[in-house]
Amino acid sequence: MAQSSIYIHPTAEVSPEAYVGAGTRIWRHAHIREHAHIGETCNIGKGVYIDVHVHIGSHVKIQNNSSIFEGVTLEDGVFVGPHVCFTNDLAPRAITPTGKLKSADDWEITPTLVKYGASIGAGAVIVCGITIGEFALVGAGSVVTGASSAIRTFISSYTRDMLYSLWNRLLCSAQVNYCNVISDNCSDFAKVIQSAKIR
Question: Measured in Å, how far apart are the chain's first and last C-alpha atoms?
Fold first, then answer.
C-alpha cells in the first residue's frame, strides 16, 4: 500500500495486501479486499465493496454503496455512481448439481472491463462479460447486458443505446481520428452515425 497522502477512514476495512495509490481517499465502512489495486487520487465512497483482484485505475470516483466484484477492471477516469452493482458470474447458483454448497472451484469468473472516462449512473447493474467503451455513459437504473462502443449512452432498464451527440462535438473539435470526423457540421454527424453503425 502506498504510504504517502492517502486517507483511510477509521471504520473502513482495507486489507494490508491491497494496493492503494497516493492521494486516494477511502471513506467510512468501505471494504477493500486483498490483492485489489486502486490507483492514485481515487475517491472511494461510503460502504463501497471492492473484491479481491479488482483493478481500479487512477482518478476514479466510486460513489456510496457500490459493489465491484472480482473480475472487474476500471480504467483511469471512470465514474461509478451510488449503488452500482457489477456481477461476475453468468450462471449464479448457491449449490452444485449434487446439492452441495458451491466453492470457489465450482464456478468461473467472467471479467468485465470499463474503459477510460466511462460513467455509470446510480443503481445500474452491469452483467459480466462485457466491455463498456471509452466515455460511454450508462444511465441511472440501467441493466447493461451487452458491450458498448465508445461515446455511447445507455438509458433505461432495457438499455436502449444512443449516440451521445455531445461527444460528436468534442471529437470534432479535438480532431480525434474516430470515424475520421474533423469538423462540426451535419454531414459529419451523419458520417459518425454511419461509421459507428448505429441502428
Answer: 46
Cell numbers standing for residue 5: 497522502
Residues in Cβ contact with 163 at an 8 Å cutoff, skipping those fewer than 6 apart: 151, 152, 153, 192, 193, 196, 198
Contacts 24+ apart (CB under 8 A), 53-61: 57/116, 58/21
Q: What is the pTM of this model?
A: 0.76
Q: What is the pLDDT of residues 64-102, one digit of tens each?
A: 999 999 999 999 999 999 999 999 999 899 999 999 999
Which pLDDT tens digit goes with each residue over 140-177?
888 888 766 655 666 544 444 444 444 444 554 444 44
Q: How buried is 2 (Cβ within 10 angstroms: 0-12 exposed, 13-18 middle, 19+ buried)? A: middle
- What are the strands of the beta sheet with 125-126, ordered from one edge? 13-14, 31-32, 49-50, 67-68, 85-86, 125-126, 143-144
Question: Taking the CA of residue 164 as centre, how many other CA atoms within 13 Å lie in the half-sphere pointing to its CB?
Answer: 21
Name residues whose C-beta falls within 8 Å of residue 110's C-beta, 6 or more positions apart in sequence: 71, 88, 89, 90, 128, 129
Residue type for position 41: T
